[in-house]
């Protein structure tokens, strides 16, 4: 179901009933706020505070905190998840071609061809452009399909039932402010009602009847909510400072260059903070939208303009890997990493060729070139007797297999699938969306 279908579904009787049902947690929060307002303003301040100057200051700071709290909460609820622009939507004829492609490589080519002019750097585990089979769109970076909202959500953090909305690019600032002001509200109410709470247990609290119990429960409930909020607010402050969403904290995004990298959007704490709260410090703590960007493209900590590829373990180091070339005595094999069936080959100095019996050549004449996904590594043993001695010490007297010319290679794609539980006969691997989605190959367009 795409964004338009979702809006049409909400207008049906069933959709309206579900919308009302989803607002029950929100109505509960507003009921608690309304009760706390009566308990604090009427029972605590007006009826039990004898010092009028203290009462005025208590009510002043209380209402300032309450206004900021409710403002942030309301903005979090009412802010739309946004709409993915039409240029990200794949035409129906292309979708049919995609679903009926003969093999995963053909599907990848179709998606890559359509997304060639789109600012996408995120990929699926097999390196394909991310595609939503329900919305029929190329997923923008950091976007995910929400099964509750039934649409793709830009920079989706999570779906929160307490706001009946997806926390996303457009309301994430409001959500963090809502948590912060809710925590301040609870702590302020608990702190200012502590004296009357103690007086209640001493039997010295003014008033009779239910008024005293309102103050008692006001203190308990404010403490209870404060304990719940402090961990949640602290966690989201951490996510803001590392520029990461809740979904990305559980599963690192996969980049076109570099592979899986949980710090792929980490620009530094101040820059990360400004990504969410904006550049104008005067508006940082007001629930006014000031976040950077358009919700579809984001600055990254690594250069994504190149065409590099990542290895099976998600290594993001694109520097020379000469230091990784070592001898593993326990395996009795020299492992060489190769990609796309590029096999390591032997080149001889001065045009010499090995004989048919593959006789060993002097170290001074051998240059081994190993091609991998990061480039070519050349290891030369010419006039380097020290390196030869080190290699001999590492290998020892163990038995060697093979002819010294070719070596067994374990393919990266096979390692990735075995580690992650995928199978080589599956069609194109799509990223699992929030709350799960059906398999891509099961979908068909009539």
Q: What's the number of helices?
A: 12
End-to-end gap: 16 Å
pLDDT average, as an integer? 74
Shape: elongated
Rg is 31 Å
Give the amount of beta strand, in percent: 5-15%
Identify the strand order in the major beta sheet. Answer: 9-10-11
User: Largest sheet at a glance?
Assistant: 3 strands, antiparallel
In terms of per-residue confidence, which ranges show pLDDT below 50 for 5 or more consecutive residues?
308-399, 409-446
Please tally the β strands and state the result.
Answer: 11
**What's the number of domains?**
2
SS-based class: mainly alpha
Order of helices and strands: HHHHHHEEEEEEHHHEEHEEEHH
Percent in helix: 40-55%
Folded structure, characterized:
The strands form 5 sheets. Strands 9-10-11 form a 3-stranded antiparallel beta sheet, with no helix packed on it. It has a two-stranded antiparallel ribbon with strand order 1-2. The protein has 2 domains: 1-316 and 431-446, no CATH class; 336-409, no CATH class. Helix 3 (24-48) crosses helix 8. The relative contact order is 0.11. The longest helix has 32 residues, at 211-242. By secondary structure, it is mostly helical. The two termini are 16 Å apart. The protein is built from 12 helices and 11 strands. It catalyses: L-cysteinyl-[protein] + hexadecanoyl-CoA = S-hexadecanoyl-L-cysteinyl-[protein] + CoA. Belongs to the DHHC palmitoyltransferase family.
Provide keyphrases for this structure.
single chain; mainly alpha; 2 domains; 3-stranded antiparallel β-sheet; 11 strands; transmembrane
């Amino acid at each position: 179901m795409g964004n338009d279908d979702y809006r049409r579904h909400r207008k049906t009787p069933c959709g309206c009933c579900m919308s009302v049902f989803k607002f029950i947690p929100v109505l509960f929060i507003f009921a608690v706020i309304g009760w706390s307002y009566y308990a604090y303003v009427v029972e605590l301040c007006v009826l039990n505070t004898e010092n009028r100057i203290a009462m005025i200051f208590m009510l002043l700071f209380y209402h300032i905190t309450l206004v900021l709290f409710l403002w942030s909460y309301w903005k979090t609820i009412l802010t739309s998840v946004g709409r993915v622009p039409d240029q990200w939507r794949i035409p129906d004829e292309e979708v049919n071609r995609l679903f009926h492609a003969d093999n995963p490589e053909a599907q990848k080519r179709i998606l890559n061809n359509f997304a060639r002019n789109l600012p996408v750097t995120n990929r699926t585990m097999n390196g394909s452009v991310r595609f939503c089979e329900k919305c029929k769109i190329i997923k923008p970076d950091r976007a995910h399909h929400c099964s509750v909202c039934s649409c793709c959500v830009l920079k989706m953090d999570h779906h929160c039932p307490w706001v009946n909305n997806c926390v996303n690019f457009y309301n994430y600032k409001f959500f963090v402010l809502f948590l912060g002001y809710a925590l301040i509200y609870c702590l302020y109410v608990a702190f200012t009602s502590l004296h009357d709470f103690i007086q209640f247990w001493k039997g010295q609290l003014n008033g009779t009847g239910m008024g005293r119990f309102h103050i008692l429960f006001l203190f308990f409930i404010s403490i209870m909510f404060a304990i719940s909020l402090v961990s949640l607010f602290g966690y989201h402050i951490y996510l803001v400072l590392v520029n990461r969403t809740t979904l990305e904290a559980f599963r690192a995004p996969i980049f076109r260059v570099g592979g899986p990298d949980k710090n792929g959007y980490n620009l530094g704490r101040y820059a990360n903070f400004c990504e969410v709260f904006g550049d104008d410090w005067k508006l940082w703590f007001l629930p006014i939208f000031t976040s950077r960007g358009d919700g579809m493209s984001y600055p990254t900590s690594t250069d994504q303009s190149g065409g590099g590829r990542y290895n099976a373990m998600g290594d993001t180091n694109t520097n020379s890997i000469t230091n990784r070339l070592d001898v593993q005595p326990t395996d009795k094999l020299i492992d060489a990493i190769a990609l796309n069936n590029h096999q390591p080959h032997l080149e001889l100095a001065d045009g010499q060729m090995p004989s048919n019996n593959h006789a060993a050549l002097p170290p001074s004449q051998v240059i081994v070139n190993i091609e991998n996904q990061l480039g070519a590594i050349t290891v030369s043993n010419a006039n380097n007797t020290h390196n030869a001695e080190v290699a001999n010490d590492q290998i020892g007297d163990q038995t060697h297999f093979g002819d010294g010319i070719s070596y067994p290679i374990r393919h990266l794609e096979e390692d990735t699938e075995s580690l992650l539980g995928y199978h080589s006969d599956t069609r194109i691997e799509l990223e699992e969306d929030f709350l799960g989605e059906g398999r891509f190959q099961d979908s068909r367009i009539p």
